[in-house]
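Give me the 3D structure for Erythromycin biosynthesis protein CIII-like C-terminal domain-containing protein.
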Amino acid sequence: MATNGGNAKPILFFTALPGEGHTYPLLNIASSMIQRGYTVVFHGYAQFEADILAMGAEFSPIPSMLDPVPNPEAVVAAGKAITDCRLPLFVHGLVNFLYNTMPVRTQHLEDALIKLKQRDPNRQIIIVHELCSMNVTPFAYGRPAPLGFASFPKTIGIGAVNISAPSVDTAPFSMGLPYDTSRACLLRNKELHNLANQGPWLPLFEAAQRAMREAGCTTVPEDHPFATWYSAPDVCFQMCSPSMEYPLSDMPPKLRFAGCLPPRLLSSSVFEAPSWWGEVLESAGKKDRKIVFVSQGTAHVDYNQLVVPTMEAFRGRDDILTIATLGIRGATLGDNIDVPENTRWTDFLPYDHILPYADVFVCNAGYGSTSHAVTNGTPAVLAGEALDKKEVTMRAVYAGYAWDLESSTPGIEQIRTGVEAVLADQRFKERAIELKRENEDMDCMATIERQIIDYTI
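Predicted structure for Erythromycin biosynthesis protein CIII-like C-terminal domain-containing protein (457 residues):
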């Protein structure tokens, strides 16, 4: 049996996909584990190196899968060619970004583990990986353990997106159909899964099986590729409470709920408050003035899709203060945007600083965004349609704290109607507060550390 060479705690080896929504949850967990006395190595991408080093972790680089950077016009053209329906676009992204790169990313992970083992051969390593990264998956299906390892390290999977495993209780993921377990809908779901697997999902099945063979697997599962996300790790933690997901009758057996990540507030010496921040503090909690906060996240930079219509929806309203963040440092609205007098905007504003004061959060339904809404007890109005965002929206509506705008580019009247409906119905706020408390009680960081302790030898 391996020992930790005099160290009471194992080395924690983190890895995630390069997207902010995939990496930052792992960074938060890693930072908490460092504060609890663990040594952390983070196998990540160059854009996160500064954050990784700043929290006291060792940076283990993953070469970019986008070198050389694709021609932007070609990417846009390819995207337009496959956007006739939600599922083909979703599959296209998964095939090209996740599965076609998996063998190379797996080799990078193995090389990093070998170097770490050679440097400290008697120290136990436990892997904490974001489920979508999948670079540990081949080792669960026959790829030999890396040089120097008697067996592959224990792995803890972190779910930073909605539960995606196929279920008899739901239609195929990304279709955005409501949860319904009536006999008619169960039969519908079964038929839709069969049709999707033989049609739009088929390129994903083929890409996944090809990637597994190229990555050295001796067994290639025939199940839906998403199922292996939850079967490959030793245990998986979904970063939310059970009430924020559908109560599936066939939940993946290794899956546990950890609760949402807690809010992260910057110290007063680090948080750069906008010049108008005093207006937020003055308006917060007033019965005769509500704060509407809007963000499109970091990936969608056409502010006419959501930010500008939200500003316009409440132009001239003395009872509404609209706060907009563009999500990218240095971003601007542009000189052609006529900003209403009751709107304040900034390039970047940490969600956990503004959401405690907001009465409604208007966003495009990123999984991280809705998690922030819950942990701050803020009801949401969601414009999520593309890729997995419709699934995020449907679950948030099911959980009772959100309104669905049913469009990724809602009109002014749609936004006004949604926000006013949430403000007028106290049940949205009450449910958001209930979910906030439920997740606080779960204490996700302590839950994850208990699993690490259980795996420590």
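The first strand starts at residue 11 and ends at 15. Let me know if you want a second pass.
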